[in-house]
TrEMBL record, chain A:
Keywords from the named record: Amino-acid transport, Cell membrane, Membrane, Transmembrane, Transmembrane helix, Transport
Record localization: Cell membrane
Bilayer disposition of the protein: Multi-pass membrane protein
GO biological process: amino acid transport
Organism: Acuticoccus sediminis
Positions of transmembrane segments: 6-31, 43-60, 72-93, 105-129, 149-170, 199-218, 275-293
GO cellular component, as recorded: plasma membrane
Family: Belongs to the binding-protein-dependent transport system permease family. LivHM subfamily.
UniProt protein name: Branched-chain amino acid ABC transporter permease
One GO MF term: transmembrane transporter activity
UniProtKB/TrEMBL annotation, chain B:
Pfam short name (any one): Peripla_BP_6
Keyword Transport: yes
Domain Leucine-binding protein, chain residue ranges per copy: 31-375
Name assigned to this protein: Branched-chain amino acid ABC transporter substrate-binding protein
Record organism: Acuticoccus sediminis
């Protein structure tokens, strides 16, 4: 294997893994804290992408330069996370925390279906596209192959920021410590006066915002069209399962593995590209059923 | 005994003759009910929704003109995106409960393969209005199914011929197709014909990314490292647009010739991302600037109405729908005439469909004896001009259907295997933009 090809594989893998991480980490976080497998997570991704692409394209017709779309994406993602995610947690999820997991799964699935159709009602079925920021950041050339700086430099940088930011938030801030406490032992945390409800709300809003941000940041690179949400949720599940549910660093490593696996496949065995994420997941789970970073938890009686 | 049989047969022949000539003219219905399957959800709705818009315009226009023999048509749409099982039961419901007279199914080849036998079982006329698989009438004989457009074989042969005739000096090719039946089958047709006609060409990469893949970065990196002379993609919709955009952003469209047999349907959305020089087709002679028909009143009126309704220029599924409607109208007119002006029964309509010629918004299409439509193929090269904010198709060539598809009774694979250099001399009509 020559070095140039290896380099290409590495760049593509990191760029793709970065995007997958942004979305999957939200799912992982929500599950880790709330023990809810949120099927509607992919809908936040789709909503983020649709809202970002239509808003940015509209602003661009009003003369906004391409790079300014980036702060617009951030604002869009936060708005979606707070409004849609917040409402969903407050009015639906809060009622079912004590119910069986099967019911929780069904409720999030129902929300996913509703949001999917709502998205179709609002945006229709034709693909949307706006690549202003991607063009604004230009291209970089590596060994005769051209990459977009947006995908090879910017997205991985954002993913790294999110990873470090989340680590800092959970380990070194009060709100983060509260969330960790609720995750470790909800009853004990409530007994010492922690407001678990608020911790759940904050967690869910963060998770939803990250998914929407992933969608918004993906929008300059791809056509936004029906079906992107479900696709992303499947991939995110694969990442979360590989990582060990609830493991943020694990999600980063798993996303990177899946990204690299995919680009290796394209270069050396294109037939395997499609199954690569699942192949990696199966291999990891065979060796470590609890996931890369998962811990075997002592069962509470 | 023999005599008795002969007498009985003779009596029957006389009786049946009497039936077709004048006896039971079916009662004239209030409506001709037409069931249409089209994608209203999922990625293929980029075809299905324009198809439905076209059907609504065409039905309104038909009814304004008095309908079919004085009977208005009524449309029933059903969503192909709902999945095979649901679609089949919906098809059955439309036939058995709504009692539709004619079905038009489908866009997806998979759905056509499933629904064609069902139409036979239910004894309902089914117009295959958009699906591409060549297998339908090559592998099966049908009574109730008719295809009012071409199929994958002439579509791929037109693209290959155009490439070989206009840019013959290439030695490497790569393919990037969607990983499902159409992506695989179209590459099989294209590559086996290429092997027969230009065996020295090297296939450097065969990439089949997942259907609906959002990102082609790794594919594009690999293609940039390989530098193939030609890149073929029969992808469509969001997949094609994502691939071409990402390729164009990274300069791949500068270094390779792109052959995109379905890109007519994405021209307006791709805009400047589609490079000048890419070979563009639209599954038949379908183009809103069709060099032969664009100035006819019928064509202009349709384009204007379609723009009013959707905001876009019509794309090939809209034109396929126009052909399906032209066939429907033509078959009933022919059957009514053959029935002495009386309303025909279903068998008489089927009789009229055989060998029917009809004109949608492109060239005339004729249904062969195997019920496959002979649809000429328009293909050309993308070029940016001032009048439109997306590339138009220039250096157009229209190939006659008979020249680029196997004759009745021959399977495509077998026919392609027998192609020789004389195929490269296939005639065409040439047009340039503005003709």
């Amino acid at each position: 294997m020559n070095t140039q090809l290896l380099l290409l594989v590495l760049f593509d893998g990191i760029a793709y893994g970065a995007l997958v991480f942004l979305v999957a980490v939200g799912l992982t976080l929500v599950f880790g804290v709330m023990r809810i497998l949120n099927v509607a997570h992919g809908s936040f991704y789709a909503l983020g992408a649709y809202a970002a692409v239509s808003l940015a394209a509209w602003l661009a017709t009003r003369g906004m330069p391409g790079w300014l779309a980036l702060p617009v994406y951030l604002v869009t993602a936060v708005v979606i996370g707070v409004v849609v995610g917040g409402l969903m947690e407050r009015f639906l999820l809060r009622r079912i925390y004590d119910n069986e997991q099967a019911l929780q799964l069904l409720v999030t699935f129902a929300i996913f279906m509703i949001l999917e159709n709502l998205q179709r009602v609002i945006w229709g079925v034709q693909p949307y596209f706006y690549s202003g920021p991607l063009q604004a950041l230009g291209n970089v050339s590596v060994g005769g192959v051209t990459y977009t700086a947006y995908q090879t430099l910017f997205l991985p940088a954002i993913a790294l920021c999110v990873l470090l930011g989340l680590r800092f938030f959970l380990r070194h801030t009060l709100a983060g410590s509260v969330i960790v406490a609720v995750t470790e032992d909800r009853e004990a945390a409530m007994a010492v006066g922690i407001n678990a409800r608020r911790a759940f709300l904050v967690t869910f809003v963060i998770g939803a915002t990250l998914a929407a941000l992933g969608g918004a940041l993906a929008s300059p690179t791809t056509s936004v069209l029906p079906g992107i949400g479900p696709d992303m949720i499947v991939l995110s599940f694969a990442v979360a399962a590989t990582a060990g549910l609830g493991q943020i660093e694990g999600a980063a490593l798993a996303a990177l593995l899946i990204g690299l696996g995919r680009s290796f496949a394209v270069f050396y065995a294109p037939e395997f590209e499609v199954v690569m994420p699942y192949l990696i997941m199966v291999l990891v789970l065979l060796v470590r059923p609890e996931g890369l970073f998962g811990r075997t938890a002592a069962r509470k009686i | 005994m023999l005599k008795a049989i002969a007498a009985a047969t003779a009596a029957l022949v006389v009786a049946s003759g009497a039936i077709t000539s004048d006896a039971i003219a079916a009662d004239k219905p209030d409506k001709v009910k037409v069931g249409i399957t089209t994608f209203l959800s999922g990625p293929a709705s980029v075809f299905g929704v324009p198809g439905r818009a076209a059907a609504e315009i065409l039905a309104k226009d038909l009814n304004d003109r008095g309908g079919i023999g004085g009977v208005p048509v009524e449309l029933f749409f059903t969503d192909e995106g709902a999945g095979g099982e649901t679609l089949a039961s919906e098809f059955r419901r439309l036939v058995q409960d709504e009692k539709v007279d004619v079905m038009m199914a489908a866009i997806s080849s998979g759905n056509c393969l499933n629904l064609a036998p069902l139409a036979e079982d239910l004894e309902v006329i089914n117009i295959l209005w958009d699906c591409g698989t060549q297998r339908i009438f090559e592998e099966e004989d049908y009574k109730y199914n008719f295809r009012t457009q071409g199929n994958a074989t002439p579509e791929m042969m037109a693209a290959l011929l155009y490439l070989l005739q206009t840019k013959p000096d290439f030695s490497t090719i790569a393919v990037v197709n969607q990983d499902y039946a159409w992506g695989r089958d179209s590459w099989n047709l294209f590559s086996s014909a290429l092997k027969a006609l230009k065996p020295d060409v090297k296939v450097v990469a065969e990439l089949f990314p997942r259907f609906g893949a959002p990102d082609y970065s790794a594919e594009i990196s690999r293609l940039q490292a390989l530098r193939p002379d030609v890149i073929l993609s029969t992808s469509w919709g969001g997949d094609l647009e994502t691939f071409v955009r990402q390729a164009s952003q990274r300069g791949l469209t500068q270094s390779s010739t792109f052959v995109l047999p379905l890109a007519e349907s994405s021209l307006q959305r791709l805009g400047g991302a589609l490079p000048d020089g890419a070979i563009v087709g639209g599954r038949g002679d379908h183009y809103f600037l069709h060099p032969e028909t664009k100035d006819t009143d019928k064509f202009k009126a349709f384009v204007a109405e379609f723009q009013d309704a959707t905001g876009d220029y019509p794309i090939y599924p809209a034109f396929h729908m126009a052909q399906a409607f032209a066939a429907l109208e033509g078959a009933y007119a022919k059957a009514i005439e053959a029935n002495g002006g009386e309303w025909p029964d279903e068998d008489q309509v089927i009789e009229a469909m055989n060998g029917l010629s009809f004109t949608g918004l492109g060239r005339e299409v004729t249904l062969r004896e195997d019920h496959q439509g002979l649809e000429d193929q328009l293909i050309g090269t993308a070029r940016t001009v001032g009048e439109y904010d997306f590339p138009i198709i220039d250096n157009m060539r229209i190939y006659a259907a008979e020249d680029i598809m196997p004759p009745v009774g021959t399977e495509s694979v077998e026919w392609i295997g027998g192609l020789d250099q004389s195929f490269l001399d296939t005639k065409f009509d040439a047009y340039t933009y503005g003709d």
